[in-house]
Design brief:
The complex is a heterodimer of chains A (about 425) and B (about 170). By secondary structure, chain A is α/β, with parallel strands linked by helices. Chain A has three domains: about 5-225, 3-Layer(aba) Sandwich (Rossmann fold); about 235-325, Ubiquitin-like (UB roll), CATH 3.10.20; about 330-415, NADH-ubiquinone oxidoreductase 51kDa subunit, iron-sulphur binding domain (de novo design (two linked rop proteins), Up-down Bundle). Chain A is built from 17 helices and nine strands. In chain A, the strands form two sheets. Chain A has a five-stranded mixed sheet with strand order 6-5-9-7-8, with helices on one face. Chain A starts with 16 loop residues before the first helix and ends in a 13-residue tail after the last helix. Chain B is built from eight helices and four strands. Chain B has two domains: about 5-65, Orthogonal Bundle (Arc Repressor Mutant, subunit A); about 75-160, 3-Layer(aba) Sandwich (Glutaredoxin), CATH 3.40.30. Helix content of chain B is about 45%, strand content about 15%. With about 170 residues, chain B is an alpha+beta fold. Chain B has helices at about 5, 10-15, 25-35, 40-50, 55-65, 85-90, 90-100, 150-160, and strands at about 75-80, 115-120, 130-135, 140-145. The chains are: A alpha/beta (about 425), B alpha+beta (about 170). At the A-B interface, β3, β5, β9 and α14 of A face α3, α5, α6 and β4 of B.
């Protein structure tokens, strides 16, 4: 099957602007600016069934239609803050297929009437910022960005902005704060960014992978795109596969591909003759799926799309599948995840700031084999008090692995806790 | 020398890029970190003046983001990811062995002041663990599929002032 997003795997030189053009590059941008009304672009993307690839899975065209038509300017902000443990797909797209991505950003700008698009990169992607800045310059020289594009009055400009190390900046309102030169802390909503976003103006925020899908949706049409994937989860998705797996990496597959295909056909199975014990399909923010003899086939035959992953007690999220073999204990796993969230909590709201701190300390005691049965009750209680009570999703995310590890792997928390990694 | 004197042209370019002055704060902080690998109180005060901010506000931004530093460390910060996906691929053992070979603990600097080894959170390179990023001044490079031997070779090359291996 041909690649649609990771096209560099078919055409290695596609990061060269000429190669990209020879392979149909920028035809979609030309088509939308030259022959389509903005509303037609929004309608086409709505009809394609494209949903946000950053994790939330919200329909992209619907998101665009929330921007009011009486407040200007509008902004498009691309979320390239990719920081979820287990996720490394946006990085590959931007490093290897940059022009399809940038064309997507430009199409989104046109669709919502924005003249300026911002690309917010995590600070660690400095090399990508330097590269994208060059690519943007090449597009400007080629008349693909700037003023009077394709003989029309349309103007489009793209800029990059480099963060400086903060997971929370992947949260869209924290990201906007960061571009505005503040600490990356989420805003209270409402108002939503669609109305009061970047610099107080209506703003749409889309993920890198989402935007990179746009040129082919315009080129091949919504019906074609909807034909890929499943009825409710259209299109292709990049699955980042990591952990205890023979062939870690990114896999572009139709939504609805099963865990079995991803892990055993493409991923090459579990190394060292070990058994699969757990799956975290949405990175560190996952509810942990237990895989044992009784659940193996059910889990393996589950389709990875926005609906079906729920049937095995988790979510697809950004499709960063972390594979855990049977040499690892869940008290070690959640010791890792909670340390991450404690470190990344922005400190703005109390349940998250204090909750992650206390969970981290209790789990450390458990993991060190120094806990009492009261600690387990306390841990559950803290997790419950964080969940659903925070300004943004980070607080909830921090409890997912903790709660499901306790529920689904009770043997890993029986006293005395076995110290293992 | 003040930042304004040292980086006159670059600062001008930063201010042109954004419609709101305050958006310049992070690019300016990167500039301030370029030479010494950390941001001095004087630099924070100068940036605060440029942006009409309180210096406390600038300091809070330095404190919030992990790639900004307000204290001197080794010339190179070797930041090893030992978050869950990397740890499943041996990052903890790698970090421990690396430190042992260098005779330091995580967070410490080699006696010659060249390298500080730190443990950091996910760097979006989970399929290429063990890995680390090397931060020096305002520059960052990724080093993936690493072994302790290759890391020590890299450090030797840095010591000799040679070109970095990747």
């Amino acid at each position: 099957m041909a690649y649609f997003v990771l096209r560099h795997r078919d055409i290695p030189d596609i990061k060269n602007i000429e190669t990209y053009r020879k392979n149909g590059g920028f035809e979609s941008l030309k088509k939308v600016i030259g022959s389509m009304q903005a509303q037609q672009v929004v309608d086409e993307v709505k009809a394609s069934g494209l949903r946000g690839r950053g994790g939330a899975g919200f329909p992209t065209g619907v998101k665009w239609s929330f921007l009011p038509n009486n407040i200007w300017p509008h902004y498009v902000v691309c979320n390239a803050d990719e920081s979820e443990p287990g996720t490394f797909k946006d990085r590959e797209i931007m490093e290897s297929n940059p022009f399809q991505f940038l064309e997507g950003v430009a199409i989104a700008c046109y669709a919502v009437g924005a003249v300026e698009g911002y690309i917010y990169l995590r600070g660690e992607f400095q090399h990508i910022q330097i590269f994208l800045d060059q690519c943007i310059l090449e597009m400007e020289k080629a008349g693909l960005l700037g003023d009077n594009l394709f003989g029309t009055k349309t103007s489009l400009r793209l800029k990059t902005y480099l963060g400086a190390g903060a997971y929370i900046c992947g949260e869209e309102t924290a990201l906007l704060e960061s571009i505005e030169g503040k600490r990356g802390q989420p805003r209270v909503r409402p108002p939503f960014p669609a109305v009061v976003g970047l610099y107080g103006k209506p703003t749409v925020i889309n993920n890198v992978e989402t935007l990179t899908n746009l040129p082919m949706i315009i080129e091949k049409g919504a019906a074609w795109y909807k034909g890929l994937g499943t009825e409710k989860s259209a299109g292709v998705k990049i699955f980042s596969l990591s952990g205890n797996i023979n062939n870690p990496g990114n896999y572009e597959l139709p939504l609805g591909t099963t865990f079995r295909e991803l892990i055993f056909t493409y991923g090459g199975g579990i190394p060292d003759g070990r058994k699969l014990r757990a799956l975290m399909p949405a990175g560190a923010s996952s509810s942990i799926i237990r895989v044992d003899e009784s659940s193996f086939d059910k889990v393996m035959d589950t389709k990875m799309d926005y609906e079906n992953v729920q049937s095995v007690g988790s979510l697809l999220g950004s499709a960063s599948v972390i594979v855990v073999d049977d040499s690892h204990s869940m008290n070690w796993i959640i010791n890792k995840t909670i340390r991450f969230f404690e470190h990344e909590s922005c400190g703005k709201c109390t349940p998250c700031r204090d909750g992650t701190y206390w969970m981290a300390h209790i789990i450390e005691r458990i993991h060190a084999g120094q806990s009492t049965s009261a600690d387990l009750q306390l841990l559950k209680s803290v997790a419950n008090q964080v969940n659903g009570k925070c300004l943004c999703a980070l607080g909830d995310f921090s409890t997912m692995a903790v709660t499901t590890a306790l529920e689904r792997f009770p043997e890993d928390f029986e006293l005395p806790v076995q110290i293992a990694n | 020398m003040s930042l304004a004197e040292k980086y006159t042209e670059e600062i001008k370019a930063i201010f042109v890029k954004f419609p709101v002055k305050r958006s310049a704060v992070m690019p300016l902080l990167y500039l301030a970190q370029r030479e010494d690998g950390y941001i001095t109180k004087e630099s924070m005060a100068e940036i605060a003046d440029m942006l009409d901010l309180d210096v406390t506000e600038v300091a809070s931004i330095v404190g919030f983001y992990t790639l900004f530093h307000d204290e001197k460390a080794g010339k190179y910060r070797m930041q090893v990811c030992n978050d869950l996906p990397c740890a499943l691929r041996g990052a903890d053992k790698f970090l421990e062995a690396l430190c042992q070979n260098l005779g330091i603990k995580v967070g410490e600097t080699t006696a010659d002041g060249l390298v500080t080894v730190e443990a950091v959170m996910c760097l979006a390179a989970c399929d290429r663990a063990p890995m680390f990023q090397l931060q020096t001044g305002d520059q960052l490079t990724y080093h993936e599929h690493m072994t302790v031997d290759r890391s020590l070779e890299l450090i030797e090359a840095l010591k000799a002032g040679g070109k970095e291996i990747s």
